[in-house]
Amino acid sequence: MAAGLLLLSGCATQQVVTKPVVVQAPPRVVVVADPQVAELLAYQNSLRLMTPSELTKAQLDVAKLDHAPHNTIRRAMLQASVRASGDLARAQALLDTVAQASSKEAQLLAPLAQVLSGQYGELQRQNDTIDKLNSQLREAQRRNDLLNEKLEGLKNIERSLSVRPGAASGGQK
To answer: Is 27 strand, coil or helix?
Structure first.
């Protein structure tokens, strides 16, 4: 019996060994960007920080450059940053020429041109929606003003009717 207790006590003190769970992080994907793409992305970022006068100066500078695909993308980025009427459409047209060109440089820059063209198209759709909503708002405000004028007219009529003609002559009876 003592031996049995000794055996049981030995089992009770046995520790359960658990293996640590190893969590593996997903593999990191390192993309080595073409230096031209990196430079164009930096240029796009710098455009966002420019004032209107700096954008005008940049337009003059870009106009002097040749028509290489990377310069065409610069022109498109600048055109989209100015945001005057029709500029997004012109920027898309410039990007489409790069996306469809067959030169080696153009083929390397085509994915960037396609992404930018898609973004500019989406911006154009948003601008169109904003214009439509602003037009609807102006129309609603115009209708509201007309209804307020009619309401004021009705209030004036009601005020003129609330003065009882019999109340003024009530003492003469």
So the answer is: coil
Calculate the CA dihedral of residues 41, 47, 49, 52 and round it to 10 degrees.
180
Residue with structure tokens 């153009």?
106
pLDDT tens track for 147-167? 999 999 999 998 888 766 665
d(CA 70, CA 100): 14
CA 106 remoteness from chain centre: 27
Q: For the chain, give every domain's residue range.
A: 34-154
Pull the structure tokens for residue 107: 């083929």
**CA–CA separation, 15 vs 13, rounded Å?**
6
Q: How far apart are CA 100 and CA 3, in angstroms?
A: 88
What is the total residue count of the chain?
173
Verdict on whether the full-model pTM lies above 0.70: no
**CA–CA separation, 127 vs 20, rounded Å?**
55
